[in-house]
Every structure is written in C-alpha cells, then in structure tokens.
Amino acid sequence: MAQIPEVTLSNGVKMPMIGFGTYLITDAHEAVTSVRQALELGYRHIDTAALYMNEQYVGQAIRESGIAREDIFVTTKMWNSEHGYDTALRAFEASMDKLGLVVVDLYLIHWPKPLNKETWRAFEQIYRDGRAKAIGVSNFHQHHLEDLFTTAEIKPMVNQVEFHPYLVQPSLVDFCKKHGIQYEAWSPLMQGQVFELEPLKQLAAKYGRTVAQIVLRWNIEMGVVTIPKTVNEQRMKSNLEIFDFALDAADVELITSLDKGARVGADPDNFDF
Fold it and tell me: Does the pTM exceed 0.90?
C-alpha cells in the first residue's frame, strides 16, 4: 500500500488525508473489530464522536492494536447538549475517559447549535493545556466561522463538513483555505448514492478503479481530508488504495461540476437536534 499523505494544519500538526469513520458503528464487537481491522490495513486516522456512542470501543481497539499511540491520529467531537464553558470541559473529560486517552489529536464542536462562544473558549483552554493537539469545528458555514472569529483567540484548525460530488460548497472551501482551516469531508460517498452516478461509473471504467476510489481520489486532489466509513474489510482496503494514481485535471473538474448543492445530511442552518 502506498504511503498515506498528510496535510499540515495551521499549527504544524500533521493529519493523515484519509481516515476511518465510525458513525453508526455502535455494537461493541463490531466497533472494536472494524477499528482494529482498519488499523491493521494501514489507517492511522480514526474519527469518532460523543454522539456515536463508541468512543470506549475505539479506545479499546487502539490499545489492542499494538500500534504506538503517537502513530494514530484520533478525532472526537462534543455533542450539542454540551455547549458552554464548564459543560464543554466536562464533555471533553468524559470523552477522554471513554477513549482512555490523555491527549486527543483533534477535538471538534460537532454542530453550531446555536454557536456558543464560551464553548470555543473552553476548546482554546483544552488546546492551551495540551490536551488536544488541534481544535476545530464541524458543520460550520462561513457565517458561523465569521461569528466565531469575532471573539476567538485561536482560529479553528479544521472544519469537518458534508462534502461529496453533489455538495462542493466552493465558496466555503475557498473561505477555509483563506483562513488556514483544513477542509475535511464526512459522507464523501453520499451514503452510497455515488455508486448510482453515471459520470462516476464512466470514470471508474476509464481508470480501472471503483467508483468509491474515484470519488475519494477526487477528495485528495481537492486537498480535502476524507473519512469514508465501512465495516466491510475488503472495502476498507479498497478505500485506502487511492494513492497510486491521479485523476486528470479535466476529470477533477468534471466531478466538481456535478455539484447541485444537495445534502444527504442536515443543513447546519436548519436542524432540530
């Protein structure tokens, strides 16, 4: 397997460009097994969240893997019910206890609900205390980021958002790039809908690759960190095999042109959870 490239965050921390997502993997055996398999296959970036109810299993898999802790990039996220300074600090400690970690590589605000600037102040404290190597946000539109900037002393290092061929949000991509915020994709395969798109099938045939590999490679070409999720070991392996080929610039543009502004998840400006 080719070496997984890394991006360097604004504070110098290295982040692998592909990770293993764990959303909806809540069964203890399945969660431990799938994370261990991912690590054995070569993934070194694991993404979880308090909401996912599997932090303890992720932590167990990391410990059982035998891989040095410093070689694994771990992300977790604070849920919406924990906004506020003291509650955010408590939520962080709860996640760390479940993960069994002293330091997490990236800690994110999961959704702006509504944006509580005291929450970000807690995140800044966690970062200054060395408990998170990097801090960031998830599902933030440009206006959420601009609002945060009015009081933030430290800018978010990452914005993890829905990103796939039907939802590119080029203006948000450009805004994050301008402010040194790394763009990261959740649901890069549109919950499986990419497999039905004819232009992607044609590109898969052209390159002799799977549709998933074409889309994930497009993420990489766009400079976007991506975290596909599967519990199928063969697909885990296949999703990693995207670093030994490149898409033509015209094909990158073709995929980007499929953008419809269409979501498979909630709109950060209109959600009720």
Answer: yes
Binding site feature residues = 110
Euclidean distance between CA atoms 92 and 86, whole angstroms: 10
Three-state SS across 125-182? Answer: HHHHCCCEEEEEEECCCHHHHHHHHCCCCCCCCEEEEECECCECCHHHHHHHHHCCCE
Q: Where are the domains of the chain?
A: 6-256
* CATH class assigned to 6-256: alpha beta
Q: Rg of the Cα trace of the chain?
A: 18
| Catalytic pick among 23, 43, 52, 183 | 52
Q: Read off the pLDDT of residues 170-225 as tens digits, 9 standing for 90 and up.
A: 999 999 999 999 999 999 999 999 999 999 999 999 999 999 999 999 999 999 99
Non-local CB neighbours of 31 within 8 Å, separated by 6+ positions? 22, 25, 54, 57, 58, 61
- Is 43 in the active site? no
pLDDT tens track for 100-115: 999 999 999 999 988 8
